[in-house]
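Quick question, first post here. What does this chain look like in 3D?
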Amino acid sequence: MRAVPEDPVTLTLLSGARFRIDGHGYLADPNDWTEDFAVYTAREEGIDLTPRHWELIRWIRAEEADHGVMPDARFAMKFLGGEQGKQAGREELFTLFPYGYVKQAIKIAGMRQPRAWSTG
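> Answer (accepted):
Ran it through. Tokens below.
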């Protein structure tokens, strides 16, 4: 059970862009995602997005579009680790998103908050 109500609220950015988000700041509809939303959400999380952040964010969105489900953290670690392996990917994931894959990467990528997840 979540402590914050699920009822979406409208977030309006300085640019005038409007987004419906849940009580935890996740998009109500991932199709509404824009890079402006990502930049805003990352700032709220204390993250300055680098090219490597964008690489993972775009990969998350592509995986969801291709497979119809948000990719699990294990696959993100494998993606980041490449030839160096999952452990290297795990270290990089928590360097990029210190408060976690779901708390930060998934939210910034515009996915809905999952009900349950694995941290890999």
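The first helix runs from residue 35 to 44.
The chain has a mean pLDDT of 89.
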